[in-house]
Amino acid sequence: MNKLTHFDESGRARMVDVSTKEVTTRIAVASGEIMMQPETLEHIQQGKLKKGDVLAVADVAAVMGAKKTPDLIPMCHPLMLSGIDISFSELVDGNGLRVEVSVKCNGKTGVEMEALTAASTALLTIYDMCKAVDKVMVISNIRVEEKRGGKSGDWQRL
């Protein structure tokens, strides 16, 4: 197991110094799911919720979440993001939605945290917009699916 980089020799938390790292294209993909009543999913798909187009709002929320990541995660570096792609799909059993977010930048550190924050923010937004009609929604399986670029190379969940 690699050494934890966000702690100094005395065990104090620190922001990692990335000043000597190479600038490379960094990409991270994260996903998550929200389970809901089938009727709730139907309302989302048919645009029947009073708060508006749930997926359009969740899409914007994901972008905002990625951009605000260093404001939320204390040791996260502020990055100039160059692209964010969000997609939503119905779960196989028809009882919810899956979000997948891809975040890209040219920088000295990865964008995994931005992708995870974007996916989480999208799911939380769906929850917020639907909670009046569905109290039993469950957000789960938020995770990094892949990362590309940087010294440690590419990684993909199997």
TrEMBL record:
<dbReference type="Pfam" id="PF01967">
    <property type="entry name" value="MoaC"/>
</dbReference>
<comment type="function">
    <text>Catalyzes the conversion of (8S)-3',8-cyclo-7,8-dihydroguanosine 5'-triphosphate to cyclic pyranopterin monophosphate (cPMP).</text>
</comment>
<dbReference type="InterPro" id="IPR047594">
    <property type="entry name" value="MoaC_bact/euk"/>
</dbReference>
<protein>
    <recommendedName>
        <fullName>Cyclic pyranopterin monophosphate synthase</fullName>
        <ecNumber>4.6.1.17</ecNumber>
    </recommendedName>
</protein>
<feature type="binding site">
    <location>
        <begin position="113"/>
        <end position="114"/>
    </location>
    <ligand>
        <name>substrate</name>
    </ligand>
</feature>
<feature type="domain" description="Molybdopterin cofactor biosynthesis C (MoaC)">
    <location>
        <begin position="15"/>
        <end position="150"/>
    </location>
</feature>
<dbReference type="InterPro" id="IPR002820">
    <property type="entry name" value="Mopterin_CF_biosynth-C_dom"/>
</dbReference>
<comment type="similarity">
    <text>Belongs to the MoaC family.</text>
</comment>
<feature type="active site">
    <location>
        <position position="128"/>
    </location>
</feature>
<dbReference type="GO" id="GO:0006777">
    <property type="term" value="P:Mo-molybdopterin cofactor biosynthetic process"/>
</dbReference>
<dbReference type="GO" id="GO:0061799">
    <property type="term" value="F:cyclic pyranopterin monophosphate synthase activity"/>
</dbReference>
<dbReference type="InterPro" id="IPR036522">
    <property type="entry name" value="MoaC_sf"/>
</dbReference>
<dbReference type="InterPro" id="IPR050105">
    <property type="entry name" value="MoCo_biosynth_MoaA/MoaC"/>
</dbReference>
<feature type="binding site">
    <location>
        <begin position="75"/>
        <end position="77"/>
    </location>
    <ligand>
        <name>substrate</name>
    </ligand>
</feature>
<keyword id="KW-0501">Molybdenum cofactor biosynthesis</keyword>
<dbReference type="InterPro" id="IPR023045">
    <property type="entry name" value="MoaC"/>
</dbReference>
<comment type="pathway">
    <text>Cofactor biosynthesis; molybdopterin biosynthesis.</text>
</comment>
<keyword id="KW-0456">Lyase</keyword>
<comment type="subunit">
    <text>Homohexamer; trimer of dimers.</text>
</comment>
